[in-house]
Amino acid sequence: MKREMEDVVIVGAGIAGLATAVALKRVGVRALVLERSQGIRTTGAALTLFPNAWLALDALGVSHKLTRSYDPLVKGSVTNINTGDVQQVLFSEQAIRPVHRKALLEALAEELPTDTIRFSSKLAAIESQEQGGGASIAVVHLEDGTAIKSKVLIGCDGVHSVVARWLGLAEPVHSGRSAVRSLAVFPQGHRLKHEIQMFVDQQGKRAAFIPLNDREFYWFLTCKEENMTGEPEQIQREVLEKYAEFPSIYLDVVRHADLSTISWAPLMYRHPWRIIFGNLNKGNITVAGDAMHPMTPELG
């Protein structure tokens, strides 16, 4: 068995895990980030960042890498497809910006030393060893037999966090809705306004497309559908067939989907009181990001 010692171990190289590692680096603390995948995960395709997120990225010293590539969105519209009513939405002067998830992750990863992220590192078990005098050491056991001792362990391993389960946090529950997310590409340019266009109905369905640049949109659909599985082509076809009541402008964006980016997933969350009264830490082991509080999109 290979044994190692680290000051801080972070489980998960998603947005929360990398941001935490960058924040620690800025105050002089080195962290080792363990990621089960073979590379940076880009599921979700893109995301929309509001002003509070940009304040955090400013503090981490990475916002300038993204603002020069993504123009702010200053307005949008919400159309009720049952009534035809259209509500115009104006954002603050700080505005919001959509970004490719991969670009955000790479901007964070570039701030870290090359040996910070260890890919293909699958967590098998966690234990806490008492060291005397009230001190303890966290021990992370990987599936390849490696055991890593750490002064601090932070679980940033997503909705179904192994670290959260070890802490005893209640399992996330299904919100009753699911989401399809993807990028759409118009090689010759889409020639549409640089605005968010959202469409809702009275049954709780919500769809939108958000321009990332002159050629790409980030689009999504949230609905009560729980069985949208299969290959990307099948997911695209189901959206076009089952939700044909949405405007043609939205369906055309779906037709231009980059199939390599399509994902479907149930929207999970953890009841707020389960977080407030839960075990968010035991000694030197804690969680952050979705591992602590998985959020449905409107809570973003």
TrEMBL record:
Keyword rRNA-binding: no
Organism phylogeny: Eukaryota, Viridiplantae, Streptophyta, Embryophyta, Tracheophyta
Superkingdom as given in the UniProt entry: Eukaryota
Residue intervals of the FAD-binding domain: 7-299
GO molecular function: FAD binding; monooxygenase activity
InterPro entries: FAD-bd (IPR002938), FAD/NAD-bd_sf (IPR036188), MOase (IPR044560)
Keyword Ribosomal protein included in the entry's annotation: no
The protein, known as: FAD-binding domain-containing protein
Keywords, alphabetical: Monooxygenase, Oxidoreductase
Annotated family: Belongs to the 3-hydroxybenzoate 6-hydroxylase family.
